[in-house]
Amino acid sequence: MRMARGRGRGGPMRGGMRPGPRPLPHGVKPMYLPRHPFDLALCEPSFPRVKPAPDETAFTNALMKRNLDLTPTQQEHTAVLNLVTKVQAVLDGLIITPGTFDACQIEEVREVGSYKKGTMITGHNVADLVVILKTFPTREAVDKFAQKVHEDLLTSCGQDSGTKATLTTTERGFELSMQGATVRILVTTILQNLRKLSPELHLDAKIIQSHLAAVRHSRWFEENAHHSSIKVLIRLLRDLRKRFDGLEPLSPWMLDLLAHNAILNNPSRQALPINIAYRRCLQLLAAGLFLPGSASITDPCEANNMRVHTAMTLEQHDLVCLTAQTLLRVLSHGGFQRILEGNTPDITGETSAWNDVIVSPLEKAYEKPPEKKDDEDMEDMNTEETMDT
Length: 389
Description:
This protein is an alpha+beta fold. Helices cover about 40% and strands about 10% of the residues. The chain is built from eleven helices and seven strands. A five-stranded mixed β-sheet has the order 1-2-5-4-3, with helices on both faces. A two-stranded antiparallel ribbon has the order 6-7. Strand 6 and strand 7 form a beta hairpin.
């Protein structure tokens, strides 16, 4: 049967030849459309189960036990709380009655970090306070500020040998430690001063902006991620990142958003069980959630729909993805105890066996192109000049 050709006024007839897509005008780039990787939790109704879900009681109990082991003891929490209360009192005194201290003026003090969010891990008894200055954060002013806070803290503690606080200056501000607890003072300034910063006089502008971002992160977390399951998952993910080097590029903020997404981003909008959410995190990373071209997770505290994974390099994208793929294979064959409690030998770098299944570490898919050295560039220039003559 011959195919009818569409020559009518309305264009090609149904079943006839259709024109292809029109070429873009010269100089116009095609629109970039980021894609979200496959996520079973979002499309589970389209993939009904053939077999009943396996019993994961042992895995769930192991997750909860690991979270209990990572949770700071009451003694650790009390030590951090006491030090934070004393430092806050000193900073409030400098705001209300600075006296003769004029090295800087404090606008506001905000609690940030894992202590504020309730995700602190045992053995890392550190609380973060962001001090926003009205004045410019010169290095000299920050040093005087640190000395003043340290002196006032010693005075409030009575200078007893058992409660003596130690001072350590850093590029971000300074730290005060006492009785196994530490308070980090992260110094920044008001927005009006950001454009007037000088790299020779003031603290690094990127560090200052990161401290302001930490305040936004803390405020967003308090409003949107207060569910207890999210805090448990964050603690478990931070422990995972600490023990597997391939996940080191993931920042604490990335882990916060990943945990929030894994727990609450589902059709029912109800918190998923911790065992499903933990596996979902590895599934998303293994599927390419933080790879170039992925829709990833939009940073809720930044403008222009910025995606959180863009802070990583291409090598780090690849490293996180292949590490998650290896861990997911180990988890799928019953190796959750090794993932949760140990990494000797490194299961992401050496071949391992799980229930007669061999899991081999994956190789990198991205290799950074070699950079030309200055000597090679000079030789190329000399060769071109010789050819020209």
